[in-house]
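ENCODED BACKBONE
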Amino acid sequence: MNDTIAVISTSLGVGAISIIRVSGADSIKAVNNIFKKTDLTLVQSHTIHYGHIYDGEEIIDEVLVSVMRSPKTFTMEDIVEINCHGGINTTNKVLALILSNGARLAEPGEFSKRAFLNGRIDLVEAEGIMDLINAKTDVMRKLALNQVGGNVSKLIGNLRNEIRDILINIDVNIDYPEYEDILVITKEMIATNIKKIKSQTLHILRESENSKIIKEGIKTVIIGRPNVGKSSVLNRLIDEDKAIVTNIPGTTRDIVEGSVNIDGIILNVIDTAGIRETTDFVEQLGVNKSINMIDDSNLVILVLNNNESIAKEDLELLRKIKHNKRIIFINKDDLETNIKEELLKDETIVYGNTISDNGLNALTEKIKELFNIDQIATNDYTYLSNARQIGILASVLELIKDIEESLKNEIPIDIIAIDIKKIWELLGEIIGENYNEELIDELFKQFCLGK
């Protein structure tokens, strides 16, 4: 944290501009040693200066240099950004000169890590930065901006403040029982407050499931017997001939994946091997993988053949997916119907075919309906959005349940306070008030260089 770091912040390659970012106590000095035109050590903060980068007497590039002095910077350290002409050789040469003047190469995510450790951003905001960089849809961008802007942190902070107030009152009652003018904390009061916090926690967790869908998409598995048209359904959904389509049963032997954007939500579609009994070893591996994919999916599309009767294999697949969100797509509706719908009682059914794309829009609409995509896309985005955050809040909910049980069993208040304090600490882990150094190191390693 006391050294000066530098790295190329833009993608390395041919382009109009490359940006090299330098942060640390010696950043201005390191760049000033190779910059000629203005003495950067004397300029005002947040100013831009034109000049040249030199290696001894040789001009390396014509640049613009931005100087930003601490603490009003992203890392809360002195930061210098050099705008070079884009190009691999030139950019690497300028970076090498900076490194030879006292800086070291930054690690992935080290700028954001320093911003976190110096108190410029909290952990939720830091994770939001990475989500913003990786956002593939407008909805994902809005979700990430709520994290970067601190709205999610405020939500957790308010919840944490309510827990803190309970703890303060309990501590005062325990430490100063002789004072008559203090608020006497009873188990009934704790129960009321805990009930309120539980309601807020449940609400955040429910809404965070939507956030997870926004960020990770809907993992959709297409299953069915061989030759019912699974690969064609995949190709039409993603509007790309990705899966091989033939009239030979067992053509698809491994999973084929593609994705499509449905109103800002990514549908990750997986075509699987046709499920049937087979003596072919390779095909059987594909069948086993198909079955395993069912448990790991958010949505299952079971494809049936309209001109064939429902077979025992189809009924077995229906049994396997009875606990999944599912849609039955009856393909080849341009052929004579031999499907008995009474065997599909209470199922969500869509008829269509992949020749004329009939029914594909209806299939998309059913997916939107099942996952309330229209509502998600216009909803409040101020909720948790990754597994780490959601997992911690789920642990908070379990502790709340333990506290409720303790209150029913007349456990002393000072013992109950231990679990209440654990909740306060867990909420602190979400925003980074409490953190494990190893976790922080691993988290920021996932960031790109220069961020």
Notes: The chain has 15 helices and 13 strands. The first strand starts at residue 5 and ends at 8. Residues 242-254 have pLDDT under 50 and may be disordered.
